[in-house]
Amino acid sequence: MDALCWNHPAISLKPTQSSENHAFLTPKSSSLLFHCRAVMNSSNPESKPSPLKIQNRMFILGMGFVGQFFAQELKYSGWAVSGTCRNLGQKMQLEGRGFDVYVFDANDPVQDTLKAMKYHTHLLISIPPDVDVGDPLLHHEKLLRTTLQGGDLRWLCYLSSTSVYGDYGGAWVDEDNPTNPLSQSGKLRIEAEERWINLGNDLGLSTQVFRLGGIYGPGRSAIDTIIKQRSLSERQQRRARRQFTSRVHVQDICQALKACIQRPSSRRFYNIVDDDPAPREEVFSYARDLVEKKWPGKFDTLSKVVEESDITNGRGRGDKRVCNARMKRELGVSLVYPTYKSGLQSILDQMGDEEPL
């Protein structure tokens, strides 16, 4: 594509109303919505209906940061939500919030987990590939394919990463640009994308791949890193060396998923990013200013150390700016947080005025 993208500052797309009103997420009557909420939060297991009695049923493979955020939004809208986690502690915590949860072991998938997926209407895959086995589920693809055939699934979405594009020296890229991942994880993502699309096609499902930018949100942001007095993770440090990093707020990922369910598309790939790819140094500098203004002198020293040691090291390496025009145009998504500035401000506002511990 040309160097100029639709989400370039020089170009503006008008917001659409469709992203604000996802009627498919709401049961047909308010009484049904109340019933779904009540039974899913009931402390009496015998009063809970089978998820099969609820029209919309989502299974989330990997109830991590994005999975839990999306599950909660669906639950509030009357969906039955099930999913997988890594251990019994997470299982108990999630079940306490009203979700049916299965502990998933990639080396020994339990048949009951696969059978449960079969009788859900929608499937979201939010598990990154493993360096040894690739995609954990597709490591057992034959069993997965056999189990899911003839079930209730009609929609599948795989959450991938913009890392699949590789290095474009700071140029704009969209879904039509060739993929050329530099990392092993990016190469495994490409393989997983292809295999999930093939599986979805073979099962006759509406199948999409979302390529996500760097994910942030409440509890997982530059502001949280500064307040919690932590250094950046190794993965964050790698991103810090890039000239541009495309990112997306978790709430905008969720609204894109809702739009995709509402508007089944023949397209396979969508970039899910905001309008403002920016250096991580710039993002942390802005976050530090917000925190300093709210709590003067409390976190200033450490945040500067974080920036100097983790952010500026390796500054200037070219990368890419990821275009989101297809997401806006075809899914009708109007971003809640089009820039990191609006997203970070919202996260800070939600913290209230009390000084964090």
UniProtKB/TrEMBL annotation:
Keyword annotations: Isomerase, NAD
- The chain positions of domain NAD-dependent epimerase/dehydratase read 61-272
Q: Enumerate the GO terms in the molecular function aspect.
A: racemase and epimerase activity
**One Pfam family here:** Epimerase
Q: Where are the transmembrane segments?
A: none
- Is Lipid biosynthesis there in the keyword field? no
Record's family?
A: Belongs to the NAD(P)-dependent epimerase/dehydratase family.
Which protein, by its recorded name, is this? Answer: NAD-dependent epimerase/dehydratase domain-containing protein
Upper lineage = Eukaryota, Viridiplantae, Streptophyta, Embryophyta, Tracheophyta
